[in-house]
Design brief:
This protein has 119 residues and is an all-alpha fold. Helix content is 76%, strand content 0%. It folds into 2 domains: 65 residues, no CATH class; 47 residues.
């Protein structure tokens, strides 16, 4: 989704600004120019980065299309857990968290997280 929104912002700003300044939109269509600019950018990227970075970028490109690994609900659950832990630490002191952290299966806070995220 971010990929689509980002592309739309770029296209609207570039072409909209060009048209607002009185330019003709078809004047921008020059395939050889696009190859020159794209090739220059790609070449600069290859020259400026070590092979590990280039491989990591190529490996990560499909994730732009696929979407986020975590859902909004995952983040909300994590924030709720953090709130519960911080509230307990504030009210009862940091040592009160020791049992929750060492035995999360017995902790009411972590049990509540598992019950909320499962159902």
């Amino acid at each position: 989704m971010k990929l689509i929104v980002g592309i739309l912002i770029v296209v609207i700003c570039v072409f909209g600004g060009f048209m607002m300044s009185g330019g003709q939109l078809l004047a921008l269509y020059h395939p050889p120019e696009l190859i020159i600019i794209g090739g220059g950018a790609l070449g600069a990227f290859v020259v400026a980065n070590p092979p590990q970075v280039i491989k990591a970028v190529l490996k990560g490109l499909p994730t732009l299309v696929k979407g986020a690994k975590y859902s909004k609900q995952s983040y909300l659950d994590l924030l709720a857990l953090m709130y519960d832990l911080f509230a307990k630490a504030r009210k009862e002191g940091l040592m009160a968290l020791e049992n929750d952290i060492e035995e999360p299966n017995q902790s009411e806070i972590f049990k509540r997280l598992n019950a909320d995220s499962c159902g």
